[in-house]
Design brief:
The complex is a heterotrimer of chains A (about 325), B (about 290) and C (about 450). Chain A is mostly helical and about 325 residues long. Chain A is built from 15 helices and two strands. Chain A has one domain: MetI-like (MetI-like fold, Orthogonal Bundle). In chain A, about 70% of the residues lie in helices and about 0% in strands. In chain A, helix 14 packs antiparallel against helix 15. In chain A, about 50% of the residues are buried. The chains are: A mainly alpha (about 325), B mainly alpha (about 290), C alpha+beta (about 450). Chains in contact: A-B, A-C, B-C. Chains A and B meet through helix 1, helix 4, helix 5, helix 6 and helix 8 of A and helix 1, helix 3, helix 4, helix 5 and helix 6 of B.
Amino acid sequence: MTAPRTTPAPPAPPVSTPAPDVPVEPAPRPVVRARPRPFRARLSPYLLLVPALVPVAVALGWPLLRQFVISFQEYGLAQEFGQPAEWVGFDNYTALLSDPYVWGVIGRSIAFCLVNAALTMVVGVGLAVLLTRVGTAARTVLQVGLLLAWGTPVLATMTVWQWLFDSQYGVINWLLAGPLGAEGMRQHSWIIEPASFYFVATVIVVWMSVPFVVFSVYAGLLQVPDEVMEAAQLDGAGPWQRLRHLQLPMVKPVLMIVGLLQVIWDLRVFTQIYVLQRAGAPTRETHLLGTYIYSLSKEFSMAGAMATIMLVITLGLTVFYIRRMLREDV
Amino acid sequence: MSTAVPTRARGRRTGGAGRRALGALAVVLALVWVFPIYWMVSSAFLPTNRLRTSEPSFFPVDGTLSNFRRVFSDGTFFDAFRVSLAVTGITLVAAILFAFLAALAVSRFRFRGRKSFIVTILVVQMIPAEGLFISQYRLLDDWGLVNAVLGLTVVYVAAILPFTVWMLRGFVSGVPIELEEAAMCDGLSRTGAFFRITFPLLAPGLVAAGVYGFLQAWNEYTLALVVMTDPEQRTLPLWLQGMVEANKATDWGVIMAGATLISVPVIVFFLLVQKRMSAGLVAGAVKG
Amino acid sequence: MKRVRRGGLAALSVGMLLAVAACGGGEDDAAASGDEEITLWLAGSDTPQELRDYLVETFEAQNEGATLVIEEQDWNGLVPRLQTALASEDQTPDLVEIGNTQSPTFTNAGAFTDISDMVGDLGGDDLLQGFVEAGSVDSTVYAVPYYSGARAVFYRKDLFQAAGIQVPTTLEEFGAAAKALQAANPGGAPNFSGFWFPGQDWYNGIAWIYSAGGDLAEKDGDQWVGALSSPESQEGLAAVQDLFANATTAPRDADSAEPWIPFNNGEAAMFSAPTWARWSIDLPECNKGVDPEDESEAGKALLAEQQACNEEKTGIFPLPGNAAGEPATVFAGGSNIAIPAKSQNQDLAKSLLEIIFSEEYQTMLAENGLIPGNSSYADALGDDVYAQAALAAALDAKLTPPAERWAEVEGDRILEDFFQEIAGGADLAEASARADQLITETLN
């Protein structure tokens, strides 16, 4: 019924096989034809954009703008209750950027972000490719498993992760100390040392983010037309070659988008770090940008300034990527 | 746990035995991935005094359904369920539709402001939004939309849209325009070519974006917390968090049972759209 | 044809958006109809239903045509909700319960109505003074105490007996008893604590600082400064470090949450918690395996038997102070109550506030095991051991410093980090100096 994508050459009639040069070279990116069009046609892209633009501009754009404006003021809870806000220029920014602790947080966050984004992408793409190569049953099992990790309320999953890594009653310590005989692990605290804390956080973050990558990349892989794959196979390309020279280049737009989003999201990772900190980690030594901003949140103007700084960092991390994407996109 | 996930050396083999081995690998990985969830479900069947003990209970032997019964004991779970369903449903339909149109515009048209739009949509996602809830609340308050499903929906749609546009744009441009043009040569109109050729190929992308949007709206907590203060307007995450007591022992068994039940619609939704996904694929393959 | 189709799609979606926006308008009209309605936000489920019913009935009887709606808000989400709702004239509740350590932030921000002129009628000097202080800016009162709960020590009678330990009568004896229990380990549990004292548990730990006469922060002119380095605080902290090292095996990465779990598992002889923790004690030897939702008579009887068994094996005493017969100065938790400045029903809110501070209602609070805001009604707590221990502990209890930005010290978890360092054997003077600096920076 649902012909798996990799079954060797079904008797499908290749009615109108597209461009003949597909097999090994990556297909050229879609070219948007610029033919002269009547006015109505020129108007239509804008009409298509309106429904998306209106809610984003109103319910997201305006608050973001306000956050930015506030970052140049002294603005706290008292201002919410009507006290006038005082303009302070770049004071909030200089206060933050002259604090060596803030730089420490920034450094840690960048490192954490890059490691996690890379791990997530590698594992995620690997699993997505795996999905294309297995039967329907195995595929559904893996998909549902991943979906559960992604879709279960975070309160519950984070509680369970805390239980698993608990020093007193955690299953992980129990397994290590009991059946595996590592007696020293009986009361081992996983989150009290920053390095170990980040290891646990990485496990959880990767666990939670991989499913999204898998679903997106797998969806991208499904877009690669069967005929193209079959043609390549007939030309003698093995599975690995087809993956490297055909599938991955064709899903590059998706890979780039997903990778970019991972960098953005992992830089502002909040929930997992916050919950683990509350589980008993030394807070000040384990802050990343997300939790640090949150700790500033009583001082709205400071949090706003930190948010702007984070935007600059994110842009810095991704500018190369964005430019490349835009260039290829035309 | 993640050490159990080999990431390379996959997809080199093919054919019957290799395929079966890969299938087995997929199932093993699924089990590894699902273990924390299994732990949650198993805890949902245990009385609270067996949740954290020196000897962990791997299987809910002599378990109890009491936690589940207590989830249903007052009607609050169903009330929250209804609110969540409404919020998620409206959000999803609006976000996917709007995003699809926008994605179409940016990947199939060239127009002035196109690049700025793409960059803006991207940059918006880079700004931490943790501090936005106060401004968003004020906005809804001015419109009289606090404690209203619609108010929450507007903000959710705005929050999900940048991502969905960005994502769908990738999928639309992933379909080579040559496919459409070839079809147009075969006599289809441009719109016809789009809907007959490209749209079916987009189904997986729409599903991926839909699953994302569904989960965001279904599980969102912070905004719902400030917007839905009326206990009758609680969404499921608020209901769940409400079970965590501050001045009383929290009954974790009930929370795990509640969370298990909250996850069920996610799976149902996925299995429903997944059928669509395969159907779309078949159609695409035939037409291609 | 094709363009029409596409334009049509766009038009359709715009239409939907408008439709979506249009149906938003009518939502809030319902509330405006009829007579006046005021809203009371209660935090958490601490106020029993019976008391809520009393408030509604009494309020509506006293204020013809007005209705009272009580909405319960979770403690976890209370602060963000107050940050948003209190600034909105349409959405603000008319009376709110707020945690006592959260209160200075809001009183200083101007979120509440000045009720200084009511304080005399509400109880004056009989009100719990620490809470009044937390609800005041200079001498203007904005929030008054609702109830308080204090901590007491739970212990296993059988383990005390087996180790030959008496209930301690001074703080020093308490430390000695905890260490002796730990060394004796009469139950033979592999990971036994004389006193369950996890590394981040500053809620319990500050009792030693307070009892030695120290404080967390002190006001110096118009500045708040960290006071952990004062000789008094250091004396208390030395005792704390000694307990961490010799009287507990509790993990350093745990806090005051759910201390009854190791106690129930036989891994701790004592723990300190608010007195409601009695309902969470569930010793295996007493457990009757009753389904918690079993409503049958037999089930209830079994549960009562189980509770009696647990309470028979468990004792409770207020943490003793420096001299025999006096309790230690422990940390008081509890809440304040205030009228939001933006409330449009100030008079009705005040009327409700008066009902809350009436003798009847204060007595009802006490009868339900909460120490009422007006301490002259605390006698109604009853005379069982739990009420007595709670009352003894509460008499000398103390709050966190009433600094405007104290909530940020808690938000930054400075004290959790600090106690964890001490539990790890850090140098007391150095760690205290660092923590003092952070506290000072945060408070000013």
